[in-house]
Write a structure and sequence with these properties.
Number of domains: 4
Helix content: 40-55%
CATH class of the largest domain: Mainly Alpha
CATH architecture of the largest domain: Orthogonal Bundle
Distance between the termini: 95 Å
Number of strands: 11
Length: 471
Amino acid sequence: MNEGSGSNRKGSLYRRWRGKKYYDLEAPETKGGVIWLRYMVAGKTIEQSLKTKVADEAIKKRASIMRPLELASAKEVLLQTEVRLKQVENEQQEEWKKENPPLKVDEAWNAYSRSQNRPRSGEGTFYGYSLKYEQFRLWIKKSSPSVVFMKDVRTPTAEAYAEHLTVRKLSPSTYNQHLNMLALVWSVLFKKAQAQENPFAWDKKTRTGIQRRSILAEAHQRKKRPLTVEEIDELLKKAKGDYRTLIMILVCTGLRRVDGVKLEWKSIDLDHNILTLVPQKTSKRTGKSVYVPLFPQLKQELLLRDRKGRYVMPELVKQYEKDSTVISKEIKKLFVAAKIETSEATGLATAKKIGDLGIHSLRHTFVTIARYAGFPDPLIRQITGHSSEIMVDHYTHSAEKMVATLSGILLGTATTAKALPAPFSESVKEKAPDWVKKQAAEMKKLIEKISGKGNAKLKAKLLTHLATLTQ
């Protein structure tokens, strides 16, 4: 029995089976599909489930649905159409809900991580999000065990979690990060969660939802300081090999940890003294390259390294990919070895002590040096990836004597640099590796063959430069 050829006046029957429509109701491969009715009224197409798999029952149901329409006036038809459209819409929603059960709180993070609609966060940011979500999941399991589905997390529950974060005495920034992450997860999964609201959202215009905290009130006390001249000097004395090079890179470029560790040789132009790369944090969002001037001390450090392979520090890259926290921990150990205090007491209710020095302090030090050395703010923002001068101000510190000394040394313009306990001083230079000395010896033989009075100055400069590299 093929009922699919029925006219719009009678309506067409078809089976839905595995996402497809089959108008031949007797086709053996579609017997498991529910039968639907499709008809058109006043130019509008209506499709509704007859909630049966039996063809004869479907025909009877079709007749009972279509008969009133055949006999009704045009006005009545329009009224019935409106009612039926709402009815069909509700049925379709219920059908979709049956096929797509609401997400559980326990399932949400996996669903978010697989979603194609979520922002492509950096590796570190995404990992941080996962830890924060896990904290929320464990909290709700303990405090509200009856809340199983995301749709059941409403504003009162979100407010209770915000209060829980407040009791933990988190900084305003960390408090906001927790709520923003949860608001993002609910926003991305809103339809799959069958949610009625985003309980963690905050609308500035209507001032509804859970308000975020201002970071300005504690900004001054939480501002991390740059390293002093003496501290950089001591840090470099303790650092060896790759870690010394990494410290030099971070202080001289303002790169984030991941970009410093994974710096590639192709990003470094030693001839034109410039470093070019796309920071990992903004690579997926903007894809824009940043251009960093190559300070003489960093260039000298790079010239002493073996330029084979992709990365400047391949062993550090292996460590980072195995456990990204290892690098920061090792830098922290160097701070301790150099007897540099990494935290200080505060009068804040949200933190008795704050860690004001660490690997990120090397980035602060660069911003301070760069600004006082005369780098224009737009260039600093481009290098560091900050969107406003407020953030540059946050990173800039007014230890004028220190920054004047550092900027002069880094730019090679200080007349008294050798008399200062400066970073990158002669006392903390590493000896040239054997492979450099070997190549230098071969180069020296070639330079010695240069003859003629006109080449005397050039020959002397080459030999002096070669001697510097092999010290």
